[in-house]
Amino acid sequence: MAICREFHKPDLFITMTCNPKWSEIETELLPGQTAQDRPDLVARVFKLKMESFLDAVLKVQIYGEVAAHMAVVEWQKRGLPHLHLLLILRNCDRSAVMPQST
To answer: What's the Rg (C-alpha) of the chain?
Structure first.
């Protein structure tokens, strides 16, 4: 709430989920193993992909300049992580993402 008070309500809510069929995971599994059997591998691959995505959002600014962000990683019961990301964009970049009200 303090971040919303300082800036404004979030502009984008993005969820990134881990895919157990990613080639980086499947190539490292032994025959008969599933992604659920290797949480160490799943966590490492997801962390690398998440960091790459966050770099694209925050440094390359694919959605515009980010004024503030909040992120949390959760784990599903079947052992796969997912990321919830809230983005608050600078006012000059909000119009590109937010629909115009008529």
So the answer is: 17
